[in-house]
Every structure is written in structure tokens, then in C-alpha cells.
Amino acid sequence: MGFDQKKAHQLSKKDMSKKGFIDKEIKPLVDQINNMKNLYTTSSCAGRTLLLEKKSDKKFDIAWIYCDHNQASLKKIKEILKNPPKSPVWIKQEPAIIHICCRDLKVAEKLLVICKHTGFKYSGIISIGKRITIEVLSSENLETIISENNTLLVSQDYLKRIVKECNAKMKRNKQRLERFSLGIKELEQD
Question: What burial class does residue 49 get, using C-beta atoms within 10 Å of its C-beta: 0-12 exposed, 13-18 middle, 19+ buried?
């Protein structure tokens, strides 16, 4: 199967993400990429702030108790933490991530240069077998435990500071996505 057939097949598949649809904050960029002749996406996330209840370190044993792809709400987070669960609760801010398949290595190389110049410095080729896949990823994230055994482990002031930092990272994340959108326009000219 050639690149164009793989692209058509991928883009016709049902979204298998937890939500079942593309984050609205990143959808315009995903559409931009998927409309380019030499690229298509296989997965994406606009970045997010989460509260995770970790009953164990196994993926299936972690409950999302808060998720926001925009600015996190300190009010909502405080409300959730009024009665924290027995299991540890972690706050986690994740950067945007996009998996992009490229027609060939030449396109992949150009895309990686754009990634680096637009702030996605942790980007790299993650697959080179049946398809060439680039993981677009920046370095900014935050993850720390904030409650355990039904007890908040941080002060209200520190919780406010953590949420402020998550929101600052999300703002920078959005700016990077905007720069990336402008940067990949040069690939359309090839």
C-alpha cells in the first residue's frame, strides 16, 4: 500500500482516543496537516492539565478526575480536592503531541527542522518501517503528587502556584502550536 492509500485509510478510521474525537483546540492544525499532500496525522492532543487518581502504576488503574485542554480552573480543582480520595492524586500538565506520517525521509527531515525551530525540541522519528512517523513534542510538562490518604499534601497557596504554572505552560504550548502551523506552510510549497 502506497502513502496515499495509507493516508486515505488512516483518515477514514474511527477515532480511538478516550474522548472519541479530536481536541477542538488542535483540530484546525490537524486539518491543516491532513490537507497537505505529504503528511497526515495518526493521533494528537492539544496539551492538557489533569488530576489523576493513581490506584497503582498500571495504566488501567489510573482514573482521570479532572481534565482541561485550556486554562485549568483553580476553583474546580479545589472543589475536587475538598474530599480527596485515599489513593494518591497527581496533578499533571502535558504538552501538545502530534504523530505525523511523512511521505518520505526528505519530508520528515524538513518537518523535524520546523519542529525544532518552533519550540518542539523533543520531536523525533518514532517509526521508519511501514510508515515514517514523527512525534511532535515539546519539553514542557509538570507532574507532582498533591494528595494521598484523603489528605491534601500541599498548601492552598502552593496549589494555586502549581495551577498558575500549568496555565503558563499551556499558554506557551498554544503559542508553539501557532508557530508550528505557520512553519509547516513552507512544506506545502514543495
Answer: buried
Strand-pairing partners, residue 92, are: 50, 143
The strand order across the sheet containing 62-68 reads 62-68, 48-54, 89-94, 142-148, 151-152
Cβ atoms within 10 A of the Cβ of 111, count?
25
Residue type, 40: Y
Q: Which CATH class is domain 3-185?
A: alpha beta
CA dist., res. 19 & res. 22, Å (int):
8
> Kindly report the CA angle at 120 between 116 and 121, in degrees rounded to 5?
60
Q: What is the pLDDT along the chain (190 residues), one digit of tens a residue?
A: 899 999 899 988 877 666 777 888 999 999 999 999 999 999 999 999 999 999 887 778 899 999 999 999 999 999 999 999 999 999 999 999 999 999 999 999 999 999 999 999 999 999 998 899 999 998 889 999 999 999 999 999 999 999 999 999 999 999 999 999 999 988 776 5
- Residue the block writes with cell 492539565: 49
Give the count of alpha carbons within 13 A of 94, CB side only: 17
> What pTM, to 2 d.p., does this model score?
0.89
